[in-house]
Amino acid sequence: MKKITIAIDGFSSTGKSTLAKQLAKELEYVYVDTGAMYRAVAYFAMQHNLIGADFFKKEALIEALADIKLEFRFNAELGFAEMYLNGENVEKQIRTIEVSNFVSKVAAVSEVRAKLVEQQQEMGTNKAIVMDGRDIGTVVFPNAELKIFMTASAETRAQRRFDELQQKGDNVSYEEVLKNVVDRDYMDTHREDSPLVIADDAIEIDNSYLNKEEQFAAVLELVNDVVKTI
Fold this sequence. Notes:
alpha/beta; 9 helices; about 50% helix; kinase; P-loop_NTPase
C-alpha cells in the first residue's frame, strides 16, 4: 500500500487526537500531536513566569525558544508517544485547563509557530504520517494527500472535555470549560499567523452526533479511497 500524509485540523476538543491515533495504529503510521507541542511551550512559559492571567512576556518567550527542547517518546504500555519537555515527561501537566487557557495565546506567536512548524515538516519527510492540529493542511502539509477538518458544536465539545477532565480528577465546572472552548475558538480563528481555517481541499466532518467507531470507519474509508487513486 502506498504511503500518504494525513492532515487532521479542526476546533479544540473535536477528538482530532483520538482519531489520529486510531488511524496511525491501523495504518502503522507515525502519529504526531502538534497540539501537545504548543501545550508544552505554554507550560514552559507558565513554569518560567512568562504568562499569566493578566500578563504575557512575549519577547522573553521568544528569546527562550532556543532553550526549549521538545520530543515525543513512545510509551509501549500506552501504545502512543508522550510529550517530553527538556527531558521531562509533561504529558499529564500539559492537559490541564490552566494550560488550555494559555495555549492559544502562545500558539499565536509567529516565532513559536515557525520553530514548531519546521520540526513538524521534518517529521513528515517520508510520509506515512498522521498529524493533527490547527494548520496542518494549510501550512505544515499543504500538499497532504488527505485533509480532514473536524468540527462540532461548542456545547458538545465542552461536555466531552468536561467529562474527560472529571475522569482525571480535575476540579472544574462545565461553564469554565465551555468558556475556554469558546475563547480558544475565537483566538484560533482570529490570530494573524496561520489562523484556523478549512483548507479548500479538506473534507469537513461534523462529529456532533458520531461516536468514535462511526467516525473512524468513515475516515478509514476516505483513506482507502485516496490510496487507490495515487
